[in-house]
Amino acid sequence: MPMDESVRKAVLAAVPSLRAFAISLCGNVDRADDLVQETLLRAIANIDSFQPGTNMSAWLFTILRNHFRSEYRKRRREVEDTEGHHAESLKSQPEQYGHVEFREFREALAQLPSDQREALILVGASGFSYEEAAGICGCAVGTIKSRVNRARTRLAELLHVNSAEDFGPDETTRAVLARGGE
Amino acid sequence: MNERKPVGQQTQMETAATRSKKPTVKPAKLGRDVQARLGQQLRAMYDDVVNQGVPDRFSELINRLDGKKDGE
């Protein structure tokens, strides 16, 4: 399968981010790397359908995401409660991620609905615009925006970070109670 | 059935008390600092993988698939 040098370089350059996306999606490094491998095989076999001058990363992310979705649906038939299973597999294999400090964050991320999780990662970590993320997920820009917002809110709840704590609600409460008492 | 009534009343009282204690809390909207902190953590987790670069497995795969034309 002949590839232009520039195309080959673009594919190679996208691999690290593609892996990070795949790990975030399926929560397991081995499965994620298989997903990346299958994505690269498909992409290179269909490299002629890549339009030069467009975003190679976005093209590869779309292939990976669609492949993951079809695999995910297959697994859903096999495994009951896929979200729960995803979260459980994270808890049982924390060492797979190397850094323990991200464990709590990953566990919270794993509890998000998959459409919210992918939207948050594409926009918040992969660096895609809302428009690019909408193209990758095959949905409207407004849908991506609301998914990202819901994902952030839920993540904050799961990690017990909220503005009330940050701004010292206890002082406010005390002040209000003191005023009310007099 | 008899136990439900007092529980319901208690919950109502607690809700009312909570509301009066926290007049400035808006649970639906995240503070900008909270969003920034979540974003930092998300990117740190993601970049941890990105910084691992391209594993040999994938550079070899790409070279192998691409190299077929040169071999002929």
Write up what this structure looks like.
Chain A folds into two domains: 1-78, RNA polymerase sigma factor, region 2, helix turn helix motif (Rna Polymerase Sigma Factor, Chain: A), CATH 1.10.1740.10; 112-182, Arc Repressor Mutant, subunit A (Orthogonal Bundle). The longest helix of chain A has 23 residues, at 56-78. In chain A, helix 2 crosses helix 3 (56-78) and helix 6 (114-124) runs antiparallel to helix 7 (130-137). Chain A is an all-alpha fold and 182 residues long. The radius of gyration of chain A is 20 Å and the shape is globular. Chain A has ten helices and no strands. Chain B is built from three helices and no strands. Helix content of chain B is 74%, strand content 0%. With 72 residues, chain B is mainly α. The termini of chain B are far apart. Chain B has helices at residues 4-21, 32-50, 56-71. Chain B has one domain. The chains are: A mainly alpha (182), B mainly alpha (72). The interface between A and B is large, with 48 and 41 residues.
Through-space gap between termini of chain B: 83 Å
Poorly predicted ranges of chain A: 92-99, 164-177
Largest sheet of chain B: none
Span of the ends, CA to CA of chain A: 82 Å
The total count of strands of chain B amounts to 0
Please give the radius of gyration of chain B in angstroms.
Answer: 28 Å
* Helical stretch tally of chain A: 10
Give the amount of beta strand of chain A, in percent: under 5%
List SSEs of chain A in N-to-C order. Answer: HHHHHHHHHH
Q: List how many beta strands of chain A DSSP finds.
A: 0
Q: How does the helix and strand content of chain A classify structurally?
A: mainly alpha
| Unreliable parts of chain B | 1-14, 16-27
- Residue share in helices of chain B? over 70%
Characteristic key phrases:
heterodimer, A: 182 residues, mainly alpha, Rna Polymerase Sigma Factor, Chain: A, Arc Repressor Mutant, subunit A, 74% helix, B: 72 residues
